[in-house]
Amino acid sequence: MIRFLAIRLVQAVAIVFLVVTATFFLIRLAPGDPYTTVTDRHVPPEVVDYNRHLFGFDQPIARQYVTYLRRLSHGDLGLSHRTFRPVAERIRGALPNTILLGFGALLVNFAFGIAVGAVQAARYDQRLDHLLSLVTLTLFSIPAFWLGLLAIDLLAVNLGWFPTGGTMDVVTGDLLPFGRQLLQRLHHLVLPALTLGLVSGAWTARYMRAEMLDVLARDYVRTAWAKGLPPRRVVIHHIARTALMPIVTLFGMFVPVLLSGAVFIEYVFAWHGLGWEAAKAVETYDYPMITALTTLTAAMVVLGNLVADILYRIADPRTVSS
Amino acid sequence: MRRWKWTAFALGIGLLAWRWSRILELLTRGSPLDRLAASVALALPLFAAGALAMPLEIRNRWVVRVAPRLVGGRAMTLGLVLSGVVCAAAVLAPVLITRDPVAIDLAHRLAPPSWAHPLGTDLAGRDQLSRVLHGLRTSLAIALPAVFIAIVIGTAMGTTAAFLRRLDGVLMRVVDVGMAFPRVFLLLVLFAFWRTISIGAMTLILGLTGWFHVTRLVRAEALAMRDTEFMLAARALGLPAWRKFTRHVLPNLAAPIIVTATLGIGNVILIESGLAYLGVGVSAPTPSLGRMINVGQTYLFTEPALAVVPGVTILVTVIAFSLLGDGLHHALNPRSR
């Protein structure tokens, strides 16, 4: 186990390093830099040159790369071009929001997916199964950002149940006591988490259905039925428990799905997380921000896979040999 | 089957009768893509007639053997019909719609649906139906070749990893890195930094970033195939590697590859429209469904159709390919449930 962990950790670090390098060079391969393309034409050239010098764009690219790596190893992600504040500061502000959204979405995802998948398997090839298949297929095929827009129109504007966007009430947010602030944050979380959770939950439902149908055919399930156990007990204790095992490890797969989905969802709901920062950074050619965000997301994906691997080994000891 | 052919024939003849002058006009004075659309419109009834008149022995060879299995399920039939309609609408857009999708008409801004503009007009008075169809065309023009590129690379890499074991380690680490890279972030970066990116370049980038999971799938399938008896027999016969690959490996990989490709088309359409919604990708005058939603969201409460119609178009298109992919999966793996 320790050897396995050590190997996987080294691999994980190597992957993140490669992603940093690839991002760094991909961005600089693109034509122009932040000061040739987006700067206002009225800014005097001396200022542009000074800015270029300030951010090190006048140096050869290899030198820039070494400098970047040296700073990165000290945890210094550089200055944002957009806000002139340290990137790390922006990310510290955005990361909790993305994690909160991710957890909320994951909760909806698993609750919805497991319930729907289990019901479908229990009613295999009946009308309800077909109906729910259609529902998951639709969710699977719907553009998440568009579903978010519809949700805002219907639930936030027309019915007024939820706020239309943001993470907090802009006016009263900071003045409230902590408990009320938390409630308000959760109230703002409902729609984005629901949208992201349902769209990604369609996967879970399909997976759960297939997994349950697989388990349904096993011998010990037949034994359980033959013993005359009540159906509820067979479904919950014998079938669902076994089927849930691989579902748990699905969460490793969902890290990239949720992070990618978060880009669109956060933009629609003005939820100030990593995805929102990424969309803003792209608009303004904010190199340090983009590099930091891709690195961070890659690290999160790798970490998610690592945790999933470990969980899977604990859940199913037979995988040790492979 | 005959019913479908007659339907296609009748539709094709109907289209010719309805848009005859338009087709001639496009053929004589259109861009290459317009000419392609006009030729397709001309070929459609001919093709259907050919299928109807096909001699029995040829029909038996392929159509009878494969087709009923494909058109069996209700979901599959729906998927086939829907994706057929979507593709036909995209390809035939210049024939079906005579209005220019980029022609601005400020006198008729935000017009309600009418005979002249079946879906109304947008903020600049451009015909909404024409824009949606041409947006769909853009989406498919990007998604289909992008998936093709991804599938070709993925299959090549996957089979290489499975059969040349020395390269397996390196290739799979590359795949690991590729899958660790959140694709949407990567695309956002690439598309945003090349401000005015051509459709060809976008397609290429989408294809080059989409082959990682195909590689994994193909490798797993090919590894499972390596120890089968027919591969052993092929080896024992001393078949050359190329023949083993084209006659034994590829046909057996076809089923999972076709299914992944079909599902991949929907996925690429979703990604492309999402990026366009964020304002990167296809540049402005070219109609793009994602960008239409972006523009429409500002007027969501007063002019909901502006954002709803392109959204529904994306939804229907992706559902069509998902149904088709699902149906193909069930048809090609009869034991799956």
Strand content of chain B: under 5%
Q: How much helicity do the residues of chain A have?
A: over 70%
Q: Cα-atom Rg of chain A, whole angstroms?
A: 24 Å
Instruction: Label the overall shape of chain B.
Output: globular
Helix count of chain B equals: 15
The termini of chain B sit apart by: 25 Å
Strand content of chain A: under 5%
**Which structural class do the helices and strands of chain A define?**
mainly alpha
Rounded radius of gyration of chain B (Å) = 23 Å
Helix content of chain B: over 70%
Counting DSSP E segments of at least 2 residues, the number of strands of chain A comes to 0
Q: Mind explaining what this structure looks like?
A:
The complex is a heterodimer of chains A (322) and B (337). Chain A is an all-alpha fold and 322 residues long. Chain A is 76% helix and 0% strand. Chain A contains twelve helices and no strands. Chain A has helices at 2-29, 34-37, 45-54, 61-73, 87-122, 127-141, 144-158, 178-216, 219-226, 231-268, 274-283, 287-315. The two termini of chain A are 12 Å apart. The mean pLDDT of chain A is 81. Chain B is an all-alpha fold. In chain B, 76% of the residues lie in helices and 0% in strands. Chain B is globular.
